[in-house]
Design a protein that fits this description.
Largest sheet: 6 strands, antiparallel
Shape: rod-shaped
Strand content: 15-25%
Length: 544
C-alpha cells in the first residue's frame, strides 16, 4: 500500500539526508586522510630501511677493498695473487658480505697480470689479455687517468660474461716514488648487495627501483645501460614489470665514492581500502537513509493513527455523554411518577388494611417501587458523576448524626424484615467530606446489608479511628457473596445483580457509586465476604 506523505515530511527527510551525507562524507574523508598518512609513512619507512641496508652492504664492500688497498700500499708494490686472495679471505671473517666475484691486477699497459674469481664460476682466463677488449677505447682513456691516482673509483653496474651483474670498484697502484705500476679492479656480484634492500620489506607490497647517477637502471640480474646482456634470467621484481606511475615513488640517495645510487620505493598496488571504504560508506549511507525513512513513515502512521484515535475518542465521548445524559433524563423523569405511585399505595394500604391479600400485594408493589427509586437515584448520581456534573463540596460532618439519619430513612425496610441495628462508636470528632456523597455511601451500604440479611437478624455498624483515618464498618450475617462475584464488585462492565433474602432486586450499582465517591474523598472501600456467612463492608476517609 503506497503512502503519500505531507510535503513537510519530504522536506524533513531531505534535510536529514543532506546532513547525513555531509556527516558520512566528512567521516569517510577523515578516515581516508588518516589512511593516506599512514600509507605514506609506511612507504617512507620501507624506503628508508631499504636505503639503510643497501648503504650498509656497499660500505661492507668498500671496507673490504680498502683493506686490500692498505695491504698493497704497505707491500710497496710487492704482492702476488696468492697474497691478495689470502688477505681477502682473512678480511671476510669479520664482515657480513659475499665474496667478491673477481679481483684483477692490470699493469700500465692495461694487460691482466692476474685475475682470480672468489666464487664458484668458470674462469675467464684473462691473464695476458688487454682490458681494452672489455672496456673499449673510452674505458682505456678513463683508466689511463685513474691509474695515476690512489682514489677509489666506482663504475656503473655492468653485465658480466658469466650472466651476472657486477659492481666494479678500483684504484691506482703507485710505487714508493709515486709512479704508477697499474691498478686493481674488484667486481662484487651486485645481487646479494641489492637483496639487502628487501630484508625489512614485504615484496608483495613494495617495488624498488635502482638507478645510478648516470641515469642507468639495474636490478639483481641485469644492468639496463645498453650493454649486451648475458643473463638468461630476469629479476621478477624489476620495476618496469609493474604499471606504476613515477609520481608514486619516493626516493633516497645513497652516495658511493664518485657515484650516487638512487633507490626509489612505491606500492605495487593502489590502496584497495579507499574503494572498500567508499563502497562501505555508500552502503551505510543507504542503510541510514532507509532507517530514517522507516522512522519517518512509522511516525507518520503513528501520528495518523493518533488523529484517528483522537477523533474516535471525541465521538466516543460524545456518545458516552449522550448516553449519560439519556440515563439522567430517564432517572429524573421516572423518579417523580414512582414517588407518586408510592404515595397512592400508602393511601390504598390505609383503605384496605383489613384485607390481608390486598395489603400483601400493595406492600409488594411498594417495595418494588422503593427499590426502583433507589436504583434511579443511584443511576442519576452515577451519570452525573460520569459527566462531571457532581461538585465536590467538603464540609465538617457529624458522622454519627449522618449515620442515624440514614438508618431512619431505611426504617420501613428494617421493620419489614424485623432487623435490628447495633450502632457502636469510639470515634470522637468530625469528618471532612461532601455530605451528599457520604450519605449516599452509607445509605447504599446499609441498603445492601438489609437486602441480604435474614429476617430478625442484627446489623452491626461501627465508627472508629485508625491512625489518621476514619473507619466506617457495617457487618451482617446474611447470605454473603460468592468468590466469583467478589472479583467484579467494582467493575461497571461486569457487575451482576443478586436478589435479596426476600427476593429483593438490585443492580449492583450501589457499590460502584460508593467506590467512585470514596475516590473523590481519597478514601477506600473494602468488602470482606464469604458465601453463606455474611459480609463486612468497610470504608475509610482520611483525617486532617
Amino acid at each position: 500500500m503506497s503512502v503519500k506523505f505531507p510535503k513537510r515530511y519530504y522536506l524533513v527527510f531531505t534535510f536529514l539526508a543532506l546532513i547525513t551525507a555531509i556527516a558520512v562524507y566528512w567521516g569517510a574523508s577523515r578516515i581516508i586522510e588518516q589512511e593516506e598518512v599512514a600509507r605514506t609513512l609506511n612507504l617512507e619507512r620501507a624506503n628508508t630501511e631499504a636505503a639503510k641496508e643497501f648503504k650498509e652492504a656497499l660500505n661492507n664492500y668498500a671496507t673490504l677493498i680498502s683493506g686490500v688497498k692498505s695491504y698493497i700500499e704497505i707491500s710497496n708494490g710487492r704482492f702476488t695473487e696468492e697474497d691478495i686472495s689470502s688477505f681477502i679471505e682473512r678480511q671476510l671473517g669479520g664482515l657480513t658480505m659475499e665474496r667478491p666475484f673477481s679481483v684483477s691486477y692490470i699493469d700500465t699497459s692495461h694487460i691482466f697480470i692476474f685475475d682470480f674469481t672468489m666464487q664458484p664460476v668458470p674462469n675467464a682466463q684473462l691473464v695476458g689479455t688487454s682490458i681494452g677488449e672489455i672496456i673499449g677505447k673510452e674505458g682505456m682513456l678513463r683508466m689511463d687517468s685513474l691509474m695515476l691516482k690512489t682514489d677509489f673509483y666506482a663504475s656503473d653496474p655492468t653485465n658480466l660474461l658469466e650472466g651476472r651483474v657486477g659492481l666494479p670498484l678500483g684504484f691506482g697502484v703507485l710505487d714508493s716514488f709515486g709512479n704508477s705500476i697499474g691498478y686493481i679492479t674488484s667486481i662484487a656480484e651486485f645481487a646479494p648487495i641489492l637483496d639487502k634492500a628487501y630484508v625489512h620489506s614485504n615484496k608483495d607490497d613494495f617495488v624498488f627501483k635502482f638507478k645510478s647517477s648516470n641515469g642507468n637502471y639495474f636490478d639483481r640480474s641485469r644492468a639496463h645501460n645498453g650493454q649486451k646482456i648475458y643473463s638468461v634470467n630476469e629479476d621478477p621484481e624489476y620495476f618496469k614489470n609493474f604499471d606504476i606511475d613515477k609520481k608514486e615513488y619516493i626516493s633516497s640517495v645513497v652516495p658511493f665514492y664518485n657515484k650516487e645510487f638512487i633507490l626509489s620505493t612505491a606500492y605495487k598496488k593502489p590502496s584497495q581500502g579507499f574503494l572498500a571504504l567508499g563502497v562501505t560508506s555508500c552502503l551505510w549511507y543507504l542503510a541510514i537513509l532507509g532507517f530514517m525513512f522507516f522512522l519517518i513513515s512509522q511516525y507518520y502512521l503513528y501520528e495518523r493513527k493518533n488523529k484517528i484515535i483522537a477523533s474516535q475518542k471525541v465521538q466516543l465521548s460524545e456518545l458516552v455523554g449522550t448516553k449519560n445524559k439519556f440515563f439522567s433524563i430517564i432517572a429524573h423523569d421516572l423518579r417523580g411518577p414512582l414517588s407518586s405511585v408510592i404515595n397512592f399505595l400508602d393511601v390504598l394500604k390505609g383503605e384496605h388494611k383489613n384485607n390481608n391479600q390486598t395489603t400483601a400485594i400493595i406492600n409488594s408493589l411498594e417495595d418494588s417501587s422503593r427499590n426502583s427509586i433507589t436504583l434511579l437515584d443511584n443511576l442519576l448520581k452515577w451519570s452525573k458523576l460520569q459527566t462531571d456534573q457532581v461538585v465536590f463540596v467538603p464540609v465538617a460532618l457529624d458522622i454519627m448524626s449522618l449515620t442515624k439519619d440514614q438508618i431512619k430513612i431505611q426504617k420501613h425496610a428494617l421493620e419489614v424484615k424485623g432487623l435490628n441495628i447495633r450502632l457502636e462508636s469510639s470515634f470522637k470528632g468530625e469528618v471532612v467530606g461532601d455530605k451528599n456523597m457520604v450519605a449516599t455511601i452509607i445509605r447504599n451500604l446499609l441498603s445492601n446489608a438489609i437486602k441480604f440479611s435474614h429476617d430478625n437478624d442484627i446489623i452491626v455498624i461501627e465508627l472508629t479511628r485508625l491512625e489518621n483515618k476514619f473507619v466506617f464498618s457495617i457487618e451482617d450475617n446474611g447470605i454473603g457473596i460468592p468468590e466469583f462475584d467478589k472479583q467484579r464488585l467494582f467493575d461497571i462492565t461486569q457487575i451482576t445483580s443478586r436478589v435479596g433474602t426476600r427476593n429483593e432486586k438490585g443492580s449492583g450499582l450501589g457499590l460502584v457509586l460508593a467506590s467512585e465517591y470514596l475516590k473523590a474523598h481519597k478514601g477506600e472501600l473494602h468488602v470482606e465476604s464469604e458465601d453463606g456467612k455474611g459480609t463486612l463492608a468497610t470504608f475509610t476517609l482520611p483525617l486532617k
